[in-house]
Structures are given as C-alpha cells and as structure tokens.
Input
Amino acid sequence: KQLEIEEYCKALKDEGHTYANICRLLSYEYNITRSEDQVRYIVSRKDKPRLSVKDKLFLNEQEKVLVLCDLHIPFNLDILSIVEKHKDEISTIIIGGDLVDCAEISKFVSLGKCTLEEEKIKSHQLLVEIDKICPNIPKVLITGNHETRWGRYLARNGGVLTNFHSGNILKEICDGFTVYDHNKNTSTVYGKLSSYHVVEDWFFQYGDMIVCHPISFSSIEGRTGVMAVDYFVKQGYDFSSCLVAHTHKQATGWRFGKFFSETGCLCFEQDYSNSGNLKYAPCQQGYGLITFTNDKYDHNESRIYSIDG
Output
C-alpha cells in the first residue's frame, strides 16, 4: 500500500499538481492525511540516491587517508576498531612503520618474548582483517626501525639460507609464507596480501605529505618533527606537511612553512620503558586522519586523534 501511495504521489507531481493539491487528493483517494513536506519527500527526495561519505568527499574534491604508526604487534591496541570507525570515508591506509616488534630478535633482554613466527602470523592475520573491512582501497606499509631488526638478524645468522629470504620482514609477510610444524608433520599457508604495497624505505610521500619513520629521534617534545622537516627540506623534497612516527609521542608545529606532527603510537607501553629512568615520559597513543582538498594537505580538515581523548 505504501509503494502504491508513493507512485500515486509521483504521478500527480508529474502531471503538474502542487504539493497542496496532492495532499487533498490523498485525503480523498486514500483517506489519509499528509503534510506538504511529507509529500515533497515522497516525490523528490526519495528519487535521489543517498550519497556515501566518500561520494560527498569526491564531489568536494576531497579524500581522507588513515595513518597508523607504531603498532608493534603483538603489543598493538585494537586497530580494527579504528579502521572500522573510519572505513566509510578513507581512500587509503598508510601504516607508518613498526607494524611488527621483532621482540625475539631484539638486543633488549626480557622474559616471555613472543616468537618471530607468532609475530608474523599475528601481523598477517591483522592485515587480512583490515583488508576485509576496507577491501577496495590501497594500503601502504613503511619500513620502521623494528622491521630493520630482521635484516640485521638475517645478515648475522642467515648463512646458506640468506638468499631464501627477503631482507624486509614486511615483504615476507605480504608475499605470503608457510609455517611448518615438523613435530606434527603439518604446514599452514598464509597467502599473498596483494592489496598491500611495501615501501622498502623509512619514508613515503603521498601527495604533498611525507610520512616517515626515522631511526634517530629526540626526547624533546616536537624536536624529532623539526629534524624530519630539516632533513627533507635539505634533500630538496617538495612537500607541505610531514607526519613523524617512532617517537611514541604527539606534538605538532611548523618549520620553514612546513607543518609537522608526531602522530603517537598504537601499542601498549612496555615494562622496560619505565624501569627507573627519571627522564621517562609516558607514551601517547594516537593516529592521523588526513584530509586532502584539491590534492593538497588540508590543515583545517585533517586531524591527529589521541586515544586518551
């Protein structure tokens, strides 16, 4: 009956009837009362498809990029909730280094380390779940300082097996791998992740934004961001903004007319971080949701989120 009423209203409108007249005819024909606004909604607004958030951004010549840094799997926060929150508006995801922690091959001594095998599996599983949430958008992985642990370990211990492995653990994860359980004589295949692009470098430029994961850093708030801008300016890069990972802190500022932001981390604090060092400052958890308008970093629309609020 509702569909019949809608079609009746649309037909009357096509014949040139006013909304007021359609209301009177509805009362006469169907013995129902509708306001002019309700009739207007039926005959005009319902015919127009509702635009998605991405479509609205596209019409405004805008796009949004989600920047996630320092996950340190298996010590990561709930990354999937963040991706789920922004899935309907983002066009690209950039993971800005230290996806994995590589704790087992760290030089730092601790008890109960997660094995490298477990880290690779957990990382692969997380990337698969992210891809399920956002299946049709590109995803970029930058190499962080924790990923470089794999290359150093392989150089020292790989021996005759060195040429069977990539020097980048992110490529190992995204190219797919097999885990063999020789005790049970079984194997488990973790497939290729084709929607992920691994950047075998510590920075990546997207439009006029650089996302970087430097090896060196300063404990002074914002100083690493300043150093990063200085580096890319001296190297001759054309950019307007620089998002900096690695510090596990959040700070923003300007340098030489370039905006910088230390984005914070997406992992839990580790016990060794606060073990009597009086210079220690708690990590700040957060991520970036960056808006580009007309292919330019939009400072007014972009946001660096703090998990702590």
Summary: The chain has a mean pLDDT of 90. The radius of gyration is 26 Å. The longest strand covers residues 286-293. DSSP finds nine helices and 14 strands in the chain.
